[in-house]
Amino acid sequence: GVFRDVFPLEDSHRNYILDYNNYILGLPKYSPDECIDRGVTYSVPLKVRLTLNITDEENKNEFAQSIQQDVYFGNIPAMTEKGTFVINGAERVIVSQLHRSPGVFFDDAIHPNGAKLFQARIIPFRGSWLDFTTDINDCLFAIIDRRRKFPVTMLLRALGFSTNKDIFRVFGCITTISLKSKNIEKYYGTTIINDIIDENTGEIFFEGGTVVNGNVVETLVNNKISQVEVVDSDRQFSSMLLLNTMEKDPTHSTEEALGVVYQLIRSGEPPNLETAQKFIERQFFSPKKYDLGQVGRYRLNQQFDLDVPVDDTVLTMDDIVCVIRFLIDMRKGERGSDDIDHLGNRRVKTVGELLTNQFSVALSRMLRTIYERMNLRE
């Protein structure tokens, strides 16, 4: 699994492609008893069969040459018949521990001023942690990998919900009102979503964010505008939280949001639109960098009644929207927090998984060297 996740590797010009074939475990040098007597580790040699494909200069989809070789990766501890390991002559066992299952967890806390704050955390099997939280001013914030927090609307813009209207629509907070309605007064105090523009002259009557009142209605009716989209007053908490958050959000488009989010996470690096977009995609939507695991995907599907295939273990837009919507429902008092200590929210990390993690760390260190050497050969 680990080798399949990493390979094949390509250099920047696709001149060389290093592919994984299979691995071979050799025989131990000593028996477990001999290892105990000699004070050495009971282990077996690990060799990996790799193929270096050299592409044709004219057609990069064809190989001009292929070189196959067994590469010695080192010795790995082997399990004895008793289920133990012998490390430096001492017989050891793996003690399994309980860890949080991948998935999403909701919690609450009390601020020193007495206000109740709500938090959500998406924990993957592998990849960046994504947190959402409310503050004492009823704003929603996102935090990636426990770094600086930023308005959640900025994250939504970076993910493609560019305008305020896009964001309000995905949370079902838009309603169209008739300005000539007899009950128009009940919409006083609601917020206009988009700029209202004269189609003939291009003049802006009212900017998005303007609060509806008698003067606004009169001006629009006099200019023969009969309908306008406003933030739905029936979705009071959703509208309030999103409007409060938008006031803290300095960005107004996907491009702006991508640049700011990228700078927050990769401080010091100048933002580039294409680089920032690829970075966000890799963080949450690339199987190589992000993996909820089948358990995490199953738990998200169950919690939010989603129908995403269990094998699709990256985040989706629906996942993120559902988590934010659940957090808003918690603020309304309609949902409760999770019991972190409940065994249903925990799982046992097996020996195989611990070994997988070690291999992932080792291979990630090796990747840079492999890429450098492949590029040097050019």
Topology of this protein?
Blueprint: H1 2-6, E1 9-10, E2 16-25, H2 32-38, E3 43-55, E4 63-77, E5 85-87, E6 90-92, E7 98-100, E8 103-110, E9 116-123, E10 130-134, E11 140-144, E12 150-151, H3 152-158, H4 164-170, E13 174-178, E14 196-197, E15 204-206, H5 214-222, E16 227-231, H6 236-248, H7 254-265, H8 273-285, H9 293-304, H10 317-332, E17 346-348, H11 351-376
Antiparallel strand pairs: 1-2, 2-3, 3-4, 5-6, 7-17, 8-9, 9-10, 10-11, 11-12, 13-16, 14-15
GO molecular function: DNA binding; DNA-directed RNA polymerase activity; ribonucleoside binding
Domain RNA polymerase Rpb2: 100-169, 231-349
InterPro entries: DNA-dir_RNA_pol_su2 (IPR015712), RNA_pol_bsu_protrusion (IPR007644), RNA_pol_Rpb2_2 (IPR007642), RNA_pol_Rpb2_2_sf (IPR037034)
What would the keywords be for this entry?
378 residues, alpha+beta, Dna-directed Rna Polymerase Ii 140kd Polypeptide, Chain: B, domain 3, 5-stranded antiparallel β-sheet, 4-stranded antiparallel β-sheet, 11 helices, 17 strands, elongated
A few lines on this structure:
The protein folds into 3 domains: 2-97 and 350-376, no CATH class; 101-166 and 242-345, RNA polymerase Rpb2, domain 2 (Dna-directed Rna Polymerase Ii 140kd Polypeptide, Chain: B, domain 3, Alpha-Beta Complex), CATH 3.90.1110; 180-225, no CATH class.
